[in-house]
Amino acid sequence: MPELSVPIRARGAVVKVLVRAPSDLATVRGPFPAYLDTGASVTVLDPGVIDVLNIEPVAEAGLHVLGRETVSHHGVYSVEVALADAEDRVWLPLAVLAGPINPKGTAAALGRDFLLPFIFTYDGPAGRIHLEW
What we know:
mainly beta; Cathepsin D, subunit A, domain 1; about 55% strand; globular
């Protein structure tokens, strides 16, 4: 079973991802740093990543973030995302939101929609996250 193991840092577990538009599978962008956001149901990409893909939104969606009173509105984009450091690369089709990413320095927050096909193990004593697929 293929796997990837990354350290847990102060800002969480960060992986590198590749992104492409379903309409242009030959053009792959990245790698981009992305953190694994188990608290998010959907993946969010920085608007700069959306811009380099040169794609249009397929819908609009409201996003409610824990701790914020208001709902923010974002474009929804169809993309495919893969782990850049994976030997056995699997491209996942996702409907992602465009928006600012926190923590700074990352280009994506990979939500549970991205994590769905993986076995996700949080190894606190070792300070690592393991993904298997």
